[in-house]
Amino acid sequence: MTASTASAGSTDPGVAVLEWARELTGPALRSWTERLPPAVAGWAGYHLGLQDEAGRPLRGYWGKAVRPALVLTCAEAVGGGARDAVRAAVAVELVHNFSLLHDDVIDQDALRRHRPTVWKLFGVPAAVLTGDALLALAHRVLAAVPGPETVSSIAMLSGAVEELVEGEALDVVFERRSEVTTAEYAAMATAKTGSLMGAACGLGALAGGADAERALPLVEFGRHLGLAFQIVDDLLGVFGDPRTTGKPVGSDIAARKKTYPVLAALASGAAQGRTLAGLYASGDPLSEADLRWAALLVTDAGGVRAARLAVERELEAAFAALAEAEPAADSRRDLTALAHVLTRRNA
Ligand code: FPP
Ligand code: MG
Question: In this structure, is residue 268 part of a structural domain?
Fold first, then answer.
């Protein structure tokens, strides 16, 4: 059954694909995390939204299941069955959550998915160790897949993790550097976010029976989509509504992050860009009014327009790669709908 035929009751086909992936992957994710070392299992369960901070069980997984949706749909795109790709979907989602746990420590973010972060509630050692355990578990899950693709899958996942780390390291370095170009930023964001989305597509294709060569255009699709998704995430960091993002208003600007729209505004040569540079250079904390003003400066200097154009460019490249992969018609529809919902999201 494909996501389109399963259509979990949502009117938007992209949202239906996400719901379908969440339903298929959620129970397996829960049962694998129950096998974590007991000392970290509670922190992991809290982070994943499987339990509350006192250890009381909650109903479901809190993530959007973006990467599982890519895994399962790409397995179908090469003629395989989604059910055969559930372990790969769990593995990728575990790696994603490892990276979120560590990223929240690195950025000292207090909120994630509308809730206090693990390091904030239980301390930095808890968040670091829980992330480590999820990363190790991801490899254990993939290693448990019977079949000839297991070694290639583990190699693909490990490669993506190394690239993810490279992207995050560059992100940290860029925060301390005065000049960063949008091209340098795009390369960093492809490593930070595109790597795992690309691997999600590739692992799905391998689980669906494709060889590494057949998986390649789907990996490219995921990488371009990942960059587009990250730039949309950057726009939400400037304009996102806290009720839907689960993060404070203007959180990226408050932390003076140099995201795509901000870098484009700073490089614009417009007076508003220079004013924004002054605001970024001052060490004073930014009030809510400052954040609203900064968002206006980013817009008026053309940063939002440039970011939206970059999203369109990456989406076009993603769709070109998808056409090259020659997926089955249903899967092509699902992946296209998914790409649209991920780049139009308000959460
Ligand atoms: C939100 O995904 C996450 C991103 C846009 C990726 C950001 C990249 C990192 C955090 C890499 C960090 C790397 C290391 C090594 C620490 P989402 O909106 O799909 O999240 P959800 O699962 O909450 O829905
Ligand atoms: Mg970060």
Answer: yes
In angstroms, what is the span from residue 101 Cα to ligand 1's centroid?
9
Give pLDDT tens digits for 35-61: 999 999 999 999 999 999 999 999 877
Is any ligand 1 atom within 6 A of the Cβ of residue 193? yes
Q: Which ligand 1 atom lies nearest to the CA of residue 101?
A: 16
Give the tokens for residue 288: 């809510």
Query: How wide is the angle at C-alpha 323 spanned by C-alphas 260 and 163, nearest 5°?
Result: 45
Q: Helices marked H in 49-85 — which ranges?
A: 66-77
Would you say the pTM of this structure is higher than 0.85? yes
Residues in Cβ contact with 128 at an 8 Å cutoff, skipping those fewer than 6 apart: 101, 102, 105, 119
228 in a structural domain: yes
Q: How far is the CA of 96 from the centre of ligand 1 (A)?
A: 6
Q: Domain total for the chain?
A: 1
Q: Is the CB of 100 under 6 A from ligand 1?
A: yes
Decide: helix, strand or coil at residue 112.
Answer: strand
The helix or strand, by DSSP H or E, that contains position 111, with its residue range, turns out to be strand 111-112
Specify if 142 maps to a domain: yes
pLDDT for 153-188, tens place per residue? 999 999 999 999 999 999 999 988 888 999 999 999
Residue 293 Cα to ligand 2 midpoint, Å, equals 23
Residue 69 within any structural domain of the chain: yes
